[in-house]
Write a structure and sequence with these properties.
Blueprint lengths: L1 H17 L5 H22 L10 H8 L2 E2 L3 E2 L2 H6 L4 E2 L2 H6 L9 E5 L7 E10 L8 E10 L5 E8 L4 H7 L4 E7 L5 E7 L4 E10 L5 E8 L3
Parallel strand pairs: 1-4
Antiparallel strand pairs: 2-8, 3-4, 4-5, 5-6, 6-7, 8-9, 9-10, 10-11
Protein name: Lipoprotein
Organism: Xylanibacter ruminicola (Prevotella ruminicola)
Length: about 220
């Protein structure tokens, strides 16, 4: 496709040289039009047909599997991401989702004007993982009426053991729950002391931003 794009640009320049010269604005409009066609073709190849809508983010969101609430952290959930769908790279860029090209997503049931989805950013395979299973960090996104991101919070982050050894810190596991009324709990659990060390509670406000309601550090 990049080769085709280059050929079209060259033809445009030759046409301009043979007649009336194009202004910078005209050239940019034509280039934007060609790029839009390129994006539409890439998304169509990934199952998102822009002929049905001019909003690829809406089409992508509507194509996702639905994850009913409530939900809670489990090893199986963060490892296998059941019913998550691959994220096309054009969509990942629009959502500013990091990762190495294998991002995944799932939507949550809508209520009270909330439009949420969990996006999984691939972080690579652990050195000691013989199965070669990809590791993912999980982000909860809220979307506006145009399906653009409003806010996001990290539900689950990948931490390397070397990070704890470097700072001589205890190893913490991050847990999360999302209740049926969209109350999000983020908890850090100490593997050494077998107890929760921190607990944060977020809710979704009227502007669809995540609002911190409680942040508690629990004593030893």
């Amino acid at each position: 496709m990049k080769g085709v794009f280059g050929v079209i640009v060259a033809m445009m320049l030759l046409a301009a040289c043979g007649g009336r010269s194009m202004s910078a604005e005209e050239m940019q409009r034509k280039l934007d039009s060609i790029q839009k066609i390129e994006v539409a073709e890439r998304l169509a190849a990934q199952g998102i047909n822009l002929e049905k809508s001019d909003n690829p983010l809406k089409l992508f969101y509507d194509s996702l599997a639905l994850l009913p609430l409530p939900i809670a952290y489990s090893d199986e959930f963060v490892r296998y991401l059941p019913n998550f769908k691959p994220v096309p790279q054009d969509i990942a860029k629009a959502l500013e989702l990091e990762g190495n090209g294998k991002q995944k997503a799932i939507s949550l049931s809508e209520s009270l004007g909330a439009r949420l989805m969990i996006l999984a950013a691939d972080e690579g395979v652990a050195d000691d993982d013989e199965d070669g299973t990809e590791r993912y960090s999980l982000w909860l996104y809220s979307l506006d009426n145009d399906y653009l991101p409003v806010d996001k919070i990290c539900l689950y982050a990948i931490e390397d053991e070397e990070d704890y050894d470097l700072f001589d810190e205890e190893e913490l596991l991050q847990y999360f729950t999302i209740t049926s009324d969209y109350e999000i709990h983020l908890m850090d659990y100490s593997k050494e002391k077998h107890k929760t060390r921190t607990d944060e509670v977020y809710t979704l406000d009227a502007s669809r931003n995540f609002l911190l309601q409680k942040s508690e550090e629990l004593d030893d």
